[in-house]
Amino acid sequence: MDYIHLNDMQFYGYHGALPEENKIGQRFRMTVSLATNLSEAGQTDDLDKTVNYAEVYTICRDIVEGAPVKLIETVAENVAQAILKGYPEKVSGVRIVLVKPDPPIQGHYASVAVEITRGHFSE
Questions:
Q1: What is each CA distance from 37 to 13, 88, 91, in whole angstroms?
Q2: How many CB atoms lie within 10 A of CB 79?
Q3: Which residues lie below 8 Å from residue 113, measured CB to CB, with a gap of 6+?
Q4: Contacts of 95 by beta carbon, 8 Å cutoff, 6+ apart
Q5: Best CA proximity match to 60, nearest among 31, 89, 36, 85
Q6: Which end of the chain is more exposed for a tag (fewer CB within 10 A), N or C?
Q7: Are 22 and 14 in contact (CB under 8 A)?
Q8: Radius of gyration of the chain (CA)
Q9: Could you give the residue numbers annotated as active site?
Q10: What pTM was estimated for this model as a whole?
């Protein structure tokens, strides 16, 4: 299995269970890993034989910066499903790590995050 990784993408969205999160918004960081077969793309140097990661970035951006939801779990799930549906012949699995660096909770921590894996993804 081969993988494409889009590491530490940064977006600004309005997701959260608290009303101020939906009004003020906050930063989000996301890493997406795609399970795919890159052998034909590597042998042919043909973009059509791989997953265009600029398109995947746009999917991620549109969802994270799009309509607010309460849970980052929902954001991650929406991204995973959009990628799997958008590339059914090329992506067999996806792993999403969505980080909320500054959630409005008291305490000392670097961030909170969720990680989900959908489809066939084995390392």
A1: 32, 12, 8
A2: 24
A3: 72, 97, 98, 99, 100
A4: 32, 33, 35, 115, 116, 117, 121
A5: 31
A6: C
A7: yes
A8: 16
A9: 100
A10: 0.95
